[in-house]
Design brief:
Structural class: mainly alpha
Radius of gyration: 19 Å
Order of helices and strands: HHHHHH
């Protein structure tokens, strides 16, 4: 058993560092966007909604998390079949594109579409 663990260490020398970096990146990304949620009603008001912006924010965030909940098993199966590295790259690039579109959204429709792109990734 000890020979297998030293073999693993020789074959995959950087896995602990990579796992720590991915975990830290995921936590920072989640914290960063989660701290923006209290300001979403202000963003929605800036996009032209003046009546019940909190309802729109609830719909946006609710759809975001519902879609993520439904897609997690699908993306997990794809990752198991095709490899985890490609899925991490897909998710990172897709979420980066989605968040860039969120920042550049001129209307509420574009904002909601960009948030759905983020949820799909």
């Amino acid at each position: 058993m000890a020979a297998a663990s030293s073999d693993d260490r020789a074959q995959f020398p950087f896995w602990r560092r990579n796992a720590a970096a991915l975990s830290a990146g995921n936590v920072l990304q989640t914290l960063g966007f989660s701290t923006a949620y209290p300001f979403l009603p202000l963003v929605v008001q800036e996009l032209g909604v003046h009546r019940n912006p909190e309802t729109w924010v609830g719909l946006i965030v609710g759809r975001l998390f519902t879609l993520r909940f439904l897609l997690q098993p699908i993306w997990g199966g794809v990752a198991d079949h095709y490899g985890h590295k490609g899925m991490v790259l897909r998710a990172g690039l897709g979420m980066g594109l989605g968040y860039a579109l969120v920042a550049l959204s001129p209307t509420l429709g574009w904002f909601m579409s960009a948030m759905l792109i983020v949820a799909l990734c």
